[in-house]
């Protein structure tokens, strides 16, 4: 787990907290990450996901009727899918890492130490994470929801790896290739989301920090 975590934005600055020393840092925000411009993206993401699921369902139904079968899954096919997954996963992680942290180390001079608690508060309140909920207060239920979300994504991402199993009853080896290959080929992004939610931008850690701030325990000695 990284020591310095992204809290949110305050104007043109990204605000961070060192979870060990509890010092606040700021850094000029990256153009890739703009909370104000993307504040409604959570709704768009839901629409996109539902659309992808609908397309996948339609393609599966179509395949079952027109017998859209190209060939069978071989070790070479699965190897190529694995390469695609690696590219998708690394690309997504790189973009998020560059947007939130810019690849900077905590010792970098581009991180400015800040003692402005108001900046920290504004960074919390403007974080798009709150778009998932009706209010901006940490509760036990919110932590449970986020924990379940992380668990589901992790189990799904790991479960997708079973397609590479040599067991023909579990994996895809020697099975006919159908429209499902389009969905399977995009699963690398799911692996990337899993890594991001656990190690790069863990929403549960963020909630715990915010809870300590809201209950005035963050800087209590």
Summarize the structure in short.
Helices cover 52% and strands 10% of the residues. It has seven helices and four strands, in the order E-E-E-H-H-E-H-H-H-H-H. The chain has helices at residues 41-66, 75-100, 117-125, 140-160, 180-185, 187-200, 203-214; strands at residues 4-10, 13-18, 24-28, 112-114.
What report would you give on this structure?
The protein has 221 residues and is an alpha+beta fold. The chain has one domain (4-214). Helix content is 52%, strand content 10%. It contains seven helices and four strands; from the N terminus they run βββααβααααα. It has helices at residues 41-66, 75-100, 117-125, 140-160, 180-185, 187-200, 203-214; strands at residues 4-10, 13-18, 24-28, 112-114. It has a four-stranded antiparallel sheet, covered by helices on one side. A hairpin with a 2-residue loop joins strand 1 and strand 2. Helix 2 (75-100) packs parallel to helix 6 (187-200), helix 4 (140-160) packs across helix 6 (187-200) and helix 4 (140-160) packs antiparallel against helix 7. The longest helix has 26 residues, at 41-66. The radius of gyration is 21 Å and the shape is elongated. The two termini are 23 Å apart.
